[in-house]
Design a protein that fits this description.
With 573 residues, this protein is of the alpha+beta class. It has 20 helices and 18 strands. A hairpin with a 5-residue loop joins strand 17 (369-374) and strand 18 (380-385). The structure holds flavin-adenine dinucleotide (FAD).
């Protein structure tokens, strides 16, 4: 890729930042026949885009802010993702436990009036009114069932671990995404395979500007490159202002556009809690009026989140006080289920790139998105705000602005474009079972292994299993992954670091499967594939382990404790 880059001194469009919104804008432009370069100083979807609550949702809560257009757009995009990425985006029944009848009725009125204070606790009438409106807005596609309201007896029958003070519950449907980082890389690969004039490079930072040349630095080797572009798209999320300052013509940086808030999540291995959820997301409010979520995630439980203003995005981590806050919030909704420290198998954090706002209650800051133009030269289209769910609409909006600058008409839409392993993915469980059985037979692997491959790669599973069949292959220490599978991810999915593999191409870290032995084996594969020296391999492993301990609570003792067979690893060996 870097050789191609050297031969490419000029592009029509440069997209800086390969989070989900940058990748989306890149895909939109490539599809219109633009020669476009996408760069990220880290990995694809390596920053905020790997830190969400993993909900693909209309944003019921935004109704309180009076953001009807955002909810309508989010619902449309949610339903499009259920079609276009059906291997990863699946329906999620969501239940709201309710303690009161009438409270919270004025929340929406306050939001519409611009009174940005913490909302009052939501009662049954307010929730019912919100869900009725939500259903009505979703009716265009009717992809999901309508909401249902239950009384106390039925609620406690279905969720006996909710507090006895619960008086009602309401269930509606949204969606969740299993591997958001993988969907990003699948989109990148779709684009570069289909469009020879599109190039995407991770670990390549925009570091400076020299006249009309934009200077790029390889974050792994320090090598420098330069490129000129007719238009730049600044899709750097929480770093939009920083990159604008770097690229500003004559050093005149534009007014700040973003103001980030940090959010953290925990992944729990607690069988009682998993059972208590009864297959639903529980969407509940903390005593401070913030909405929290807890739902079953790949055999574990995902719990979040916090919402804390940060002045500078930098590197964020889930701090101990946040762990305490999140666990405390869980105790309000499932008071009889204690969580032991060792049941926190992973923690993660990210900075929401929100539009700049003076609002005192962070939950009231808009999750909407818009583009701002910095005139240049070169003109810079800045992507401000947004959420995961709406990446397609936001990418299209930014691309349209860039196309107008380039004077190129739009010729294709992504609205019905299937993504990666979602192409040809079966529409029902029977079709999925047939796909698994067919792959098991074709590649002489167990049905468990074929099922894991389908869950991770959708209809690309055959490609991965074919690669593994043609290589020396064995189980990756106690994880459910195989060594050839890791090799595949390095060769075909641009993984360049241990974190790329363990935290974004696979679910090793987030599901708590990552063990000390698995890190060592993965480092050996990366060293072999990428030609690392023995010293470089040792340094990479040391740095990665230090980061896991510092940012994700995974100490050496925890990783070593996982160095033993589990039912998961046995199932897939
Ligand atoms: C706690 C939390 C929970 C969330 N939950 C949800 C949810 O459930 N559903 C939902 O729809 N949304 C959710 N979101 C929002 C969603 O995750 C974000 O809106 C989205 O990921 C932002 O993507 P982005 O591409 O704009 O930014 P990012 O993913 O942050 O990408 C910006 C990229 O720019 C790169 N960059 C920065 N500087 C440079 C440079 N100089 N050169 C090159 N590259 C550079 C960075 O490395 C980074 O990869 C959540 C966010 C958080 C934090």
């Amino acid at each position: 890729m870097l050789d191609e880059l050297k031969a490419l001194p000029r592009v029509q469009a440069l997209v800086v930042g390969a989070g989900i919104n940058g990748i989306s804008a890149f895909r939109e432009l490539a599809l219109q026949g633009i020669d476009v370069l996408l760069v990220d100083r880290g990995d694809f979807c390596g920053a905020c885009s790997s830190a969400p609550s993993r909900m693909i949702h209309g944003g019921l809560r935004y109704l309180e802010n009076g953001e009807l257009a955002l909810v309508r757009e989010s619902l449309r995009e949610r339903d499009a993702l259920l079609r276009n990425a059906s291997h990863m985006v699946r329906p999620l029944p969501t239940t709201v436990p309710i303690q009161h009848v009438f409270s919270g009725l004025l929340n929406a009125a306050y939001g519409v009036l611009g009174l940005r204070t913490a909302p009052a606790e939501r009662g049954a009438v307010a929730v019912k009114a919100g869900l009725t409106l939500y259903d009505r807005m979703a009716r265009e596609h009717r992809a999901m069932p309508r909401h249902a309201l239950r009384g106390r007896t039925e609620t406690l029958r279905l969720w006996p671990d909710l507090p006895p003070t619960v008086r009602f519950s309401a269930t509606y449907h949204d969606a969740w995404i299993s591997f958001p980082e993988r969907l990003g890389i699948e989109m990148v690969n779709d684009v570069v395979e289909a469009h020879p004039r599109a190039l995407a490079v991770n670990h390549l930072a925009v570091t400076d500007r020299d006249g009309d040349r934009i200077l790029l630095t390889d974050a792994l080797t320090g090598a420098g490159f330069a490129v000129t572009a007719d238009v730049v798209l600044n899709a750097t999320g929480a770093w939009v202002d920083e990159v604008n300052a770097l690229l500003a013509a004559d050093g005149a940086a534009p007014e700040p556009m973003v103001g980030g808030t940090k959010g953290s999540h925990l992944i729990l291995d607690n069988a009682a809690l998993l059972r208590a959820l009864n297959g639903h997301m529980i969407y509940f409010e903390n005593v401070d009026g913030r909405v929290c979520i807890v739902f079953p995630y790949l055999g574990r439980v995902l719990l979040g989140s916090t919402d804390i203003r940060v002045e500078r995005p930098g590197e964020v981590r889930c701090e101990d006080e946040e762990v305490a806050y999140i666990l405390k919030s869980l105790s309000y909704v499932f008071p009889g289920i204690p969580i032991a420290a060792e049941q926190i198998v992973y923690r993660y954090s990210g900075v929401r790139p929100l539009p700049r706002s003076a609002t005192s209650f962070t939950g009231r800051i808009s999750r909407d998105h818009f583009v701002e133009l910095v005139p240049g030269p070169p003109p810079i289209v800045c992507l401000v705000g947004g959420k995961w769910t709406t990446f397609r609409a936001f990418g299209a909006q930014a691309a349209d602005r860039a196309l107008a600058i380039l004077g190129v008409p739009r010729v294709a839409s992504t609205e019905n474009l299937r993504i990666g392993g979602g192409v040809g993915f079966p529409i029902d469980a029977a079709g999925e079972a047939a796909l698994v059985a067919g792959l098991a037979a074709e590649f002489s692997v167990t049905e468990a292994r074929a099922a894991h491959a389908v869950a991770r790669y959708g209809t690309d599973a055959g490609r991965v299993l074919a690669f593994c069949r043609d290589q020396a292959d064995s189980a990756l220490a106690y994880t459910g992954y195989s060594t050839a599978e890791i090799r595949y991810l390095v060769r075909r999915e641009h993984a360049r670091t241990l974190a790329d593999v363990a935290q974004r191409r696979t679910s090793l870290a987030i599901t708590g499967a990552l063990s000390s032995a698995a890190i060592a084996e993965t480092a050996a594969i990366l060293a072999d594939e990428l030609g690392w020296s023995p010293e470089a391999a040792v340094a990479a492993e040391r740095d990665f382990r230090a980061r896991l301990a510092r940012d994700h609570g995974l100490t050496e003792a925890i990783l070593a404790e996982r160095d033993r067979p589990t039912t998961r690893s046995l199932a897939c060996a």
